[in-house]
Structure formats: C-alpha cells, structure tokens
Design goal:
The chain is of the alpha+beta class. The protein contains 4 helices and 9 strands, in the order H-H-E-E-H-E-E-E-E-E-E-H-E.
C-alpha cells in the first residue's frame, strides 16, 4: 500500500501502485498543462481579446465616463458584439478608424438591444441610433447622418439615461 502522502491527487491508490513512476509523472505534467491552458483560455475569452480603454462624454449634465473594448481592426469591427448574451450597463464597444468612413452598422446575430453614437473628426456626436437584435439573413443597416471617425455601442437607453446627446463631445483614451 502507498502512504497517503505519496498518492497522486485524484487517482485511486490501486492505480498509483501498479502504474510505473515515469508514466505517473507524465500524466501529472499533462494534467497541469491542460489546467493551465483552460485557465488561459478562460481569461482570454472573458476579455474577448480586445484592447480596453475609456470613453468620456462631455454633456450638459457633466462628464460621463465608461469602460470600453476597442474594435480597431477589420475583424474586430466585423464581429463587434455578435453572440454576446449580456454586457454590463456601464461598458460598451468603441469602433475606431484612422480616417472618416460612412459604413452602416447592423445587428446580425447580436442578442442585446443596443444604441450607437457616431462621432466625427472633431470628437462631436453626429448621430445616435437605437438598434434591435436581428436573427434573420436580411437585417437592416443603421447609418449615421454623415461620415464618422468612431462609433460607440452601448446598452439601449444608456445614452438617454445619462443625458448624452447629439453635439456632445467624445474622447477615447487607451
């Protein structure tokens, strides 16, 4: 019989006593690697792998700051908030480009009702739109009133609740 302290955790004593030591060491090492990889993947998926920053709005009621994920690559912008089941009330996703664009936004496979604010080169909000989840192949596109440099998606009603309006100033810090 193997003393209690010599047993491999999670394995019965009979398995440890008949299994060669090198195999037990390899199995323990493999278990540690799998555990580490699982923890690493869990940490990455929690933050969704995007850079983080903060957006501050200067409103008539005072400044409003929120934490954001920053979608600054083509793939990140195309995926956006698709398939997310929830988003904390005081966070959002900022979509940024190097030069003004006129792309429309859509809600294909997006599960959360969102509002989006578009801002121009001067950092002024030029348009705010409410967008509803869409689970069909023909989802509507949402276009702002002019070209824009960035857009911020938040939970629907966030802008209204915080007094954020067209004309307010936006700044993004990374």
């Amino acid at each position: 019989m193997i003393p209690e302290a010599a047993r491999a955790p999670g394995f019965p004593a009979s398995w440890v006593s008949v299994t060669p030591a090198p195999f037990r060491v390899r199995m323990a090492a493999l278990s540690a690697v799998v555990l580490f990889a699982t923890a690493l993947l869990s940490a990455c998926s929690h933050g969704h792998g995007l850079p983080r920053g903060a957006v501050t709005f200067r409103t008539a009621l005072g400044p409003v700051t929120m934490q954001v994920e920053i979608a600054d690559t083509t793939n990140a912008r195309l995926t956006g908030l698709m398939h997310r089941q929830q988003m904390s009330w005081d966070s959002g996703m900022a979509f940024v480009w190097d030069k003004p664009v006129s792309y429309g936004f859509w809600m294909k496979d997006t599960l959360i009702p969102l509002s989006v604010a578009f801002w121009n080169r001067q950092g002024r909000i030029i348009s705010i739109l409410d967008m509803d989840p869409c689970h069909t192949k023909s989802c509507p596109f949402y276009y702002p009133s002019a070209s824009y440099l960035g857009a911020l998606e938040v939970n629907q009603e966030y802008f209204t609740t915080h007094g954020i309006q067209v004309g307010d100033h936006v700044s993004l810090s990374r």
